[in-house]
Amino acid sequence: MNAENFSNILEQPDELVTVNTGKVLFSNQIFEIRLDYRLRPPWMVLDNSKRFIYISKLFQPVKGDVLAWLCKDGRKYPAVVRQSGKIIFNFDIEQTITRILREQYLAKKRPLMSRLPFHHHRFPASVRVWVLKTLNKLKQGKVVFPSWPADNSVDLLRFMFMQAFQLVSKEQLKKTKKWPLDVKSIVCLSHDVDTIDAARNIEKVAFIEEEFNLKSTWFITGNKLSQSKKTLNYLHDNGNEIALHGHNHDFKLPFLKIEEIEQRLKIYRVYMEDYNMTGFRSPGMLRTTELLKVLATYFRYDSTFVDTERYSFTTPGEGCCTVFPFNVGPLLEIPVTLPMDISLAVAGLSEQQMLELWLRKIRLIKQIGGVAVLNTHTDSHLSAQPSMLKIYQKLLDTISQDKSLKVATLNKVAGYWKRRDED
Ligand SMILES: [Zn+2]
After folding, report:
1. CA 285 / ligand 1 centre spacing (Å)
2. What is the topology classification, in CATH, of domain 185-419?
3. pLDDT at 181 over 90
């Protein structure tokens, strides 16, 4: 039995683990989740803080030995129960996971920034950051799901399911080996190059990576490709990955008609071939079904989703809540799982605090066994500042000393993920 695909388990004839199919009590609601020690993953920190989760359907609960509770408005509902040698989930776990991964727990709004009649870069960066900080102060405390800076709801639900199965079954679940060698977890270093200024700073960051002999993935805005050719050739020739970051970073791409999205991407066919591009990241991390559909015909993977976001211009409150790649149709999605430099700047963190947060989250992702994807911007006011370069150097120093971590480009991760069942 494969531990990753639990639909196999659900379809078992002896039905050791089943999902309640009774009357629906709640649909599309956020609950506080409380887990019994038997279902609690070792990586769940016992910080006593409340954990909230989106649940697509909670059924009229079947009673039994309760392994997990869902709580709302002062009432507790048995979420997972054990009853005469069987486990019953009182909520629709498969649909919940699918909806969280697809971010269907929220009513997505097209951000105002994508509707401006002029390019958003015409506002100075300092003004953009100030506006965001102000807006964030107004919103603080209202969002409980996804939590930030980490939300592993999907990984938690999968763990609960496997653990529940293991409690009642004699069969041992086969653990899939995800990563090569004795590696516990992967770190991907990636950079979004949005502006001419950012393109000019590429080398400053690349030199630090060279010092540690680490390879990274560079997402370049299409209309900056021609000006950066020399640098990009150098990076590419030295084993780094070049990937596409949309056309002109005006935030409109995901909201265009399918034919218009195609037109914007087609321009870069030659570059895609020259640099063997297999990956894409959408400007502003903006994602729509239409965009993902087109991307599947051009690229092997996309890295536009974030596991959780609270402070960005364009996608606050969104997230797929997992630190593992997943499929969106034929396209592999490798989510960004470390908070972005720009988001942390807006959150008001000092550079030292950013470093500490990144390292803390890498430790968590390592315990879960997922992929830590960092996305920094090489603009002069962000990760190319001398003080931020020092922080980056410290980060790479710590990562490269940890032998249980492997640093790889996103394209390599897409390869590992595809091969994991074949090994
Ligand atoms: Zn960008």
Report:
1. 7
2. TIM Barrel (3.20.20)
3. no
